[in-house]
Amino acid sequence: MNPSQLTSSAPTRFLGWLEIFLICIPLLLFSLVTLFLWEGGQKWLLVNQLEERGAVAIGQVIETTYRSERSSTGVYHQRLICLVEYRTAEGKLVRQWELDGVNCQATYQLRPPQGDTPGALVPNYGQSVVHYLPEAPMRASADLELTRDRAKLDFGFGVAGLIFCLFVSYFCLNLLRVRWVEFRYLPKLKRLGQQQDYTGIICLLETYRQHPAANILVWEAAEHIGHCPELYPRFVDLFEQMQTSPSKKKLESVDESIAMISFYRLSSLGFHELALAMLARSKQALSAKTLASFVLITRTKQLPFALELTAEKLAALKALCEAKVIKFGLADEKQCPVDFTVRLDYLLYLVILVLDNTEFDRQAGQTIGPVQRLILSALTQVKVFDTLSQASAQALDTQIQVLLARLNTTQGFVYELKPLLESISDQLAQPVQQSAFSVTKVPVTKVSANTGK
Questions:
Q1: How many domains does the chain have?
Q2: CB-CB contact of 243 with 218 (8 Å)
Q3: Dihedral-angle region of residue 162 (phi above 0 means left; psi in -120 to 50 means alpha; beta otherwise)
Q4: Among the residues of 208-287, which ranges form H helices?
Q5: DSSP 182
Q6: How does DSSP assign 387-446, residue by residue?
Q7: I need a surface site. Which of 177, 269, 312, 347 has the fewest CB within 10 A?
Q8: Is residue 215 part of a domain?
Q9: What tens digit of pLDDT does each residue of 398-413 get?
């Protein structure tokens, strides 16, 4: 399929439930808003017309009834309504239910007995002055101010509903635009990647860099642009523009893990330089520990890690093990500190790599090569344990215990590694014990103060 076919071919499908929901909700809200504004306008216009040329008649209540209505709380109640009758100047008799301004409550008076008919209480409804239009006598009101107030109320509900409807419509429109991009342009981007048309992918991203779904497009494009290092600078600039704005709320560790999934996936595909370049331009609020751990692991994968390394790669690995500040990005434009927790966690990661590489090669496990010697030396230099928090110390100690369970031989690298890990585990237990002692010591002090002893 050539590029012209890509731009001209539009896939077709039926609308899903989500698209139907996003379309129908704004239409329904707009319909309700239009109804309120229409009713308010009609009542306001009626009052103006009645004030200018309304005729006046005397109306009287001839019938009352109760109408069952449901309140907003779901409870039904009875509302009294009445039928009003009035006669126009032309002699036309008009009857209308629920005329504005008519009091439907009756007063009762005693009717005297007449002949054989006994006396009784009979209802007596008050008469009202009815304003009506001569050409349309059904358009009438017995209280112009009440009708005008109801018009204002309808206008108020209409304007408030319109503002709410615009907000909902904006939200739904963005979701529809995102769905449309996922449906229309993600397949196009994948086809461009299959054709290795990386310049076409960049042009597509530049076209939609302000789109609500730009973040989806740029991450899909990263898995294709990774094959073309020449376009990294241009792509990273677009990524900086197209990623979603970060939240001001402090992210939890789970949110950090979710944010890092895309970077880990990109690195797992072998695009280490691109992953670090995008991480340097990322606006996501990530902790220094997360950044440093990811950069150290990614730099190790770039070597690539093996039991036998050249002198140049061995020096690079040594620099990673001893680094206090690590830089990353296309031009090393960003840096993050490497604290004790990150360094020890990284060394344990290297130990796991060595053990995984020696499991299938017993001869390699019996000898101590330059890489193993470098890791042992770095573990020997690990000394600062008092700065660890209780949670960090427990997490690191758990990793060490898992590693110790794997060390089942008594020679080579494992023979020298085991006492080092046991010593580190013992030192990690000290901050935890000190923290537990300080926690139990506080209540004793408080009790002594309260007793005065």
A1: 2
A2: yes
A3: alpha
A4: 214-225, 232-242, 253-268, 272-281
A5: H
A6: T--HHHHHHHHHHHHHHHHH----SHHHHHHHHHHHHHHHHHHHHHHHHHHHHHHHHHHH
A7: 312
A8: no
A9: 888 988 888 876 667 8
What crossing angle do the helices spanning 370-380 and 311-322 adopt, rounded to 10°?
20
Task: Spell out the residues 6+ positions from residue 164 whose beta carbon is closer than 8 angstroms to its own.
Answer: 29
pLDDT score at 431: 56
Q: Is residue 102 assigned to a domain?
A: yes
Is 1 part of any domain?
A: no
Residue 339 is encoded by which pair of tokens? 């604290």
- Residue 369's H or E segment, with its range, is none
- Within 13 Å, how many C-alpha atoms sit on residue 359's CB side? 8
- Please give the Cα distance from 156 to 162 (Å, whole number): 10
Domain boundary at 142, 166, 190, which? 166
Backbone angles phi, psi at 128, to 5 degrees: -130, 150
Mean pLDDT for 360-376 is 75
DSSP E strands, 71-174: 76-87, 93-97, 107-111, 120-124, 128-133, 136-141
Whole-angstrom Cα Rg for the chain: 40
**pTM > 0.70: yes or no:** no
Which value, to the nearest 10 degrees, does the dihedral of the CA atoms of residues 50, 52, 55, 59 take? 30
| Nearest CA-CA partner of 142 in 106, 104, 105, 100 | 100
Domain membership flag for residue 392: yes
Choose the final residue of a domain: 119, 140, 166.
Answer: 166
Lookup: tokens for 232: 């990294």
Amino acid at 23: I
Q: Collapsing DSSP states into helix, strand and coil, what is residue 385?
A: coil
What lies within 8 Å, CB to CB, of 76 at 6+ separation is 68, 69, 70
The confidence score (pLDDT) of residue 317 equals 92
Give the chain's mean pLDDT: 81
> Two tokens at 443?
């209540």
The SS3 call for residue 351 is helix
CA distances (Å), 33 to each of 149, 243, 271, 435, 442, in order? Answer: 18, 36, 53, 62, 63
Which of 70-84, 203-217, 238-252, 318-332 has the highest average model confidence (pLDDT)? 318-332
For residue 18, what pLDDT band results from cuts at 50, 70 and 90? Answer: low
Residue 366's identity, in one-letter code, is Q
